[in-house]
Amino acid sequence: MGGFISVLGGKITAYRAVAEDTVNLVCRKLGSKTLSSTAQIPLPGAPSPSQEAMEQAALESGLSMDTITHLGNLYGSRFSRVLDLVKKDVRGGQNLCPHSPDILAQVWYSID
């Protein structure tokens, strides 16, 4: 099939760069001089919350520092959105299992 472009395989750490190369190729084929600018755009949730912000969140939420750190690592600056769900309903702070820092509010957040 002439002109068909596909991307197969790759590693998650390289997907953004592969996508950029693909978009740039499509732009060139379409005669556009505009290229992808995603390399300069922070990912959603960037930057990660500061240690102070996470310590304050642990104090305010009553959740363990392990759980707060886990949320900060997963959601970056958006970790407070998960904590907002715990504020609305304290059941959201329940651990999903005793061997993991994941909490019920993460499930709610993923559905929302």
Automatic annotation (TrEMBL):
Record flagged with keyword Flavoprotein: yes
Record key words, sorted: FAD, Flavoprotein, Oxidoreductase
Gene3D superfamilies tied to this protein: Alpha-glycerophosphate oxidase, cap domain (1.10.8.870), FAD/NAD(P)-binding domain (3.50.50.60)
Stretches assigned to the Alpha-glycerophosphate oxidase C-terminal domain: 36-111
Matches recorded under InterPro entries: DAO_C, DAO_C_sf, FAD/NAD-bd_sf, G3P_DH_FAD-dep
One Pfam family cited in the UniProt record for this chain: DAO_C
GO molecular function, one term: glycerol-3-phosphate dehydrogenase (quinone) activity
Biological processes per GO annotation: glycerol-3-phosphate metabolic process
Protein name: Alpha-glycerophosphate oxidase C-terminal domain-containing protein
